[in-house]
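Hey, I was hoping to borrow your eyes for a little while. I've been staring at a protein lately and its backbone has me curious. You're getting the sequence in one-letter code plus the fold written as tokens. Would you mind checking whether the tokens look sensible for this chain? Here's the protein in full, and shout if anything looks odd to you:
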Amino acid sequence: MLKNNERLDDLQFNNLFIIQNPKLYCFTSDAIELCNFVKAGSKDRIVDLCSGCGVIGILAQAKTKAKSVVLVEIQQQLAEMSERSIEYNKLKNIKVINAPLQNIHKQIGTGFEVVVCNPPYKLSKGGVVSEKEEIAICKHEIKVTLEEIIKEASKLLKFGGRFYTVNKEERLADIFCLMRKYNIEPKTLKIRKSTKGANVVLVEGKKGGKVGLTIQV
């Protein structure tokens, strides 16, 4: 099932494994923290935007027992690895869509209870851009912007549905402004302090929610 340069990593939960290729983009601890931040029930349907190798969607379903999960990933190699990880783990009710996330609601529908996204953190011209296109797409807003992600999340969510994302603290103002622009009210902010570089922030929002924010440090 593994191809050249690929490895099988133990997710250390429910005997789940994930296929990764270190020459592409491998998930970080931010993805695991985001997954643990997500709240969902057994009747909820989750959409994972910018799903990469599928780690967030796969773990989120295992931890929350969500009814179904849709992984949306623009890069064919990452999407295909996700499909093989799903097959390897013999998982059901998870499907992968290899397509741009812009207007993905027209393909998969709306009314979802949960949308989660581990987005590219950096602006398209912010900082050093990797020479490897596959990595650059994951780290920089080359194929999608933060605004496009939040706009699409709002379209996917039902009223009262929840949006979860992670980013660097330098993008927090952008996140809050864009969430309110598209009718997703920030409800929870979790700050993970870093010993180097910018702190990591995790944000939970509610579509159509009332004003009121809780901060966790």
Notes: Strands lie at 7-10, 17-20, 45-49, 68-73, 94-98, 112-117, 157-168, 184-192, 200-207, 214-216.
